[in-house]
Write a structure and sequence with these properties.
Helix content: over 70%
Oligomer: single chain
């Protein structure tokens, strides 16, 4: 089972390796937008939307990796002072009854919108923008799948630990 967990980890590590470059690209495009606007009086809706797309892609696609490296937001009212065994039980409960059902619900409720967006190849958010809202909406199920894969990997490891 450890091999399966490692393979699932590699999926999110690979995705994170690729999307991390969006942070640099986003900064460079935003710099170009600012220089263009204030130095040359030029403006581009498509460039502005590209920053939105990159930002969404970076955060939605790297969420599974964030869970992998344990840098996600954690409400640790009880967790911080708990014993390792209690933390393990909290994590198992969280993955099985909170995270997984939330991701399944998110896929279920977003899928009709994503499907319809692809069916019509939904156009830009603003006039003159990027003609690919269908790609932006596709980030929602992609986010959910990547987080569920990482949750499964963590759950495999949590269940493999012998109770003390």
């Amino acid at each position: 089972m450890e091999h399966l967990a490692n393979a699932l980890d590699k999926v999110n590590m690979g995705v994170a390796y690729v999307v991390r470059w969006l942070a640099l690209a986003m900064m460079l495009v935003q710099f170009t937008i600012v220089v263009g606007r204030y130095a040359f009086g030029a403006n581009s809706i498509a460039l502005q939307e590209s920053v939105l797309y990159m930002h969404a892609g970076l955060f939605m696609l790297a969420a599974g990796y964030t869970l992998l490296v344990d840098k996600h937001v954690r409400v640790d009212v009880f967790y911080a002072k708990a014993t390792p065994e209690v933390r393990r039980r909290i994590d198992i409960f969280g993955h099985l009854f909170l995270l997984m059902p939330s991701m399944i619900a998110l896929i279920y409720w977003s899928w009709p919108s994503v499907r319809n967006s692809w069916a019509i190849l939904e156009g830009p958010i603003s006039v003159g923008g990027i003609e690919a809202v269908f790609l932006l909406k596709s980030l929602i199920p992609a986010f959910s799948v990547l987080v569920m894969l990482q949750s499964l990997a963590l759950l495999i490891r949590l269940l493999a630990v012998k109770e003390t």
